[in-house]
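Field guide to reading this record: the first block holds the primary sequence, the second block holds the structure written as discrete tokens, and the final block holds curator observations. Each block starts with its own label. This record concerns ABC transporter permease, catalogued under organism Paenibacillus yonginensis.

BLOCK 1 — SEQUENCE
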Amino acid sequence: MRRNIMLWVGCLMLAILLFVTFVGPYLPFIDVTPVPSRLSDSGKLTLPPYKYSAENPLGSDKFGVDNLSRIIVGAKETLLLAGSIALLRYVIGFPLGVMARNKKGGAHNLISILNHVFSFFPTLIAAAAFMSLPLLVQVHLRTFWIVLFLAFIEVGRVAVLVQQQTSRISQELYIEAGNALGLSPLRMAKNHYLPAMTPELIVNLCLDFGKSVLLIGQLGVLHIFIAQRYSSFAGMLNTSNDWGSMLAAHISEIFVSKFQYVLIPSMAILFAILTFNVLGEGLRHLFNRRPSSGRVI
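BLOCK 2 — STRUCTURE
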């Protein structure tokens, strides 16, 4: 582990991310209160967005909200959404993959259909199409259904990976011994398949966490938000506070050559993606050095 630089760097980056997420919002200089106007040192009235200064190290948005505060406060919602999406993929995909380990039956047919159908559509396109459906405009628990669908898009891929791994593990002698003893499928999955696959699942979960953060950012570029509410006067209003929403608020400034405010949420998203990818690769190297039942999928 001492020579596993990727793991050390990944753990350090994760520690920074967790500090920002859980401690950052309580720091004394964090304030997301809009400042509609401000007097400059020369006595002139200035309007937002405010430039970089001691009061606003990263400037402010068009409502006068400090960008640094928005990044820190939005970290928790961003990671919660990304984590929920990634975790749901494996909660649904793992049992499907285990049930389809013999590559026949209803579970095998289901994951084959899911994998083939969604492999033809980029994840972003499928997500955008679903989230734009009129029936989701005023649906109850909109965020829940969207998170569930974003996870469901990749369930087929996850289940196929689990199926391939469990199919190979099924050839091991201790699995054949368990079958000969008549152990139930649930007990086999809990006591044999899951322990053998835990390293692979952890690595892939880390990588999928990063992919989910990227997806949230991509949806923000398209001005498609996970949490919204409908107003009869203004239409759909974004109620999200994640980094994708912050990116969406500044994306139009690219057309007037104002890249600095787009760069702020983009760098936060990039840091989170790199964190989970570096951590995942570090864990891959760690697990591959240990005796295991197979390589990381």
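BLOCK 3 — OBSERVATIONS
The beta strands are 38-39, 45-46, 228-231, 235-238.
Confidence is low (pLDDT under 50) at residues 292-297.
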